[in-house]
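Look over what follows to help learners.
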Amino acid sequence: MADESGKGTESVASNLNEAEKPTIQPLRLPTAEEIRGQDIWNNCAVRSVVSGVMGGGLGFFMGLLLGALDRPHEEMTGRQEFIYQAKQMGRRSWGSAKAFAVMGFIFSAAECVVEKARAKHDMTNTVVAGCITGGSISAKGGPKAACAGCAGFAAFSVVIEKFLDRHE
């Protein structure tokens, strides 16, 4: 009878060990459509245009929001205030859409080109892309402004990357 009870505990222990082992999933190869999609997305021109369009959309909605918060400085009737705010929303949304589209396009293009040239996906790509973006956007202000824009946008890009935790 002692032998039977020992066998019972061994089978319970082996069942627990089997339950603890992770199941191994079979390796699945990508389909031709998935490979084609990855090839398209890995194209720097496609990635940059998509980022520019998405940046423009974000800027458009931010402009609408910020334009709606503008208050007229003079006394107006309700209709005049409505017209004023609609115009402000339009101006702000168009300006923000252009700025964010350019910013998204430049950053994405720079990051993609640097990543392809270095054949690495790390924080250095983000820093270089941020520097290129900040410097090119603020270049009209002169060399000091370009350097400040480079440093500021690079630092901002690092903070965002750390927050999103994309790189290990």
Summary: The helical segments are 2-20, 32-41, 44-69, 78-118, 123-137, 143-164. DSSP finds six helices and no strands in the chain. The longest helix spans residues 78-118. The chain has a mean pLDDT of 86.
